[in-house]
Fold:
Amino acid sequence: MAEPIIQVEGLYKSYGAVEAVRGLSFAVQEGEVFGLLGPNGAGKTSTVEILEGMRTPDRGTARVCGLDPERSGAEFKQKIGAVLQSTALPDKLKVKEAIELFANFYTNRANTDALLKRFQLEEKRDAFYSQLSGGQKQRLALAMALVNNPQVVFLDEPTAGLDPQVRREIYDIIEELKRDKKTVLITTHYIEEAERLCDRVAIVDQGRIIATGSPRDLKHKSAGTTRIEVRLAKPAVNGALGSLDGVSDCREFDGTYVLHSSRAPQTIVALVKHLESDNNELQSLEMFSPSLEDVFIELTGRRLRD
Amino acid sequence: MASSNPISNTWTLTKVRVRLAMRNRTFLFFSLAMPLGFLFFFVMVFGKGSPAWIAYILGSILTLTVMGSFWGLSVQLVMFREAGILRRFRLAPVGAGPMLASSILANYILVVPSVIIEILVCKWVLHMQSWGNLWAIALLITIGSAAFSAFGLIVASVTNTMQETQVINQLIWTVFLFLSGASVPLAVFPLWIQRASLFMPATYLATGLEFATTNLASRAEIFTDFLALTLGVVVAFEISRQLFRWEPEAKVPGRAKLWVLVAMIPFIAFGVYENVAGKRLTQIHDNFKAIDRAPSASTKSSAQH
Structure:
């Protein structure tokens, strides 16, 4: 197997008393789209910023393209492209100027007109940064990350705070990077983003990786269960739903009962009978095929958005 | 593997900074309109109808124009840091040196047109008698602009918030403005203030430019001002490069602020020298008297008749 293009071993990072990253280790192969999936505060941004050379780890090693991100300086920066969690540029800088400005810093430069076209920014080429919408700003940030034809692209929450349509546009761009065989490390707390875009995912919680694998493999690990979410008129009697036919796991989140069942039809029949006998009523019922959210719930007892 | 070139990065950033400044109306007002407003105000109030005074006032106005660099650059750098703009540049192969050098260079490029307009207005509109020592003016404007830009960058490096920057700027600006001879002739102050002013960078710029515009000083005398400001640039640039921060949350420790004192070392040395052995104060007094005694335009014309 080829040498990984990103190699992280035993990474630790604290901010005062807060331990953001606690012994993270993983490797990413060239051409792979690798996701760090986890809730806010899981340590994803700290990890990716260490890999970008923006932060110093307290312990552990990180290597990208065979280089130490912190010590390799300009040589390292020539090889990577990145979208920060939030990108800011001067208000009166025009779109085309921003792309050309950053392209000028690199020895290997992409065609800036082609980038404008690829990211649908041609019409906005003479617009000031302050005049762009959130989605346009994010497309510009992505274009700026590719001005040097980087070997590795870091995307830190690239769709956070964007509306669903813009999010889908960004997904298309990342899928294009995937087709171009770029190595991409993406952090996200959106399940569908990780499932749709990533070849492999590391689920991160409280600074630690709790599971790694392809989205498909991880979902299989959740025992092929169906997630059933129900809301009831009255709170369920303690533990009653967990003992229904086929239920392997039952947890309550803000009045919603989340059941994992290996035999969904039998579970629903048993649920209806139980509610009748308990003089309770069903307010809503939704069924979901297994997702990475279920893996996260199984491993942590919490939902990703908590 | 080719690495990025600091000189070309500096030039790239300089061009963008100049473009951004030209799109900023506030900048245009403070750098061009306000010094011209001061020029006409000073001429009306202190000019006494004397062409000699016009040259003296030009020296003051050029000093104010150049010192403005100090205020603008510190505020811009802190604003860029707080907004997270510097973070984005940190990802690119561009270091602190080109970021800071481009600020200084862009500022110089933007100061030069204002300076030329001010000199031309004094000569053609306000009938200043001679052009003064243009070479000395050019030299002092160049090194003065670099020095005050570098001082602004130090202020940005040692302050943690925009509020703190504004307070420090206000304090320093007020002292520079009133006690350096830039707005009120140094010769009219009590001796102890005159002696204290010899420790301030602004005094070397103000007196140097006044000597150059009035043509009342030798090259050797102006050389002292040039030397003091050059040392100031070198020390201030290196300190601001060492203290430069890309991240909004990176706070400068209290003891790092003592580096400001290091930036003052050249001026402390020159201040001690001028107070003990120098002739600057005598020269300032002599020049002031010569200008004050110079005939006004109306006296001159009636004497000719």
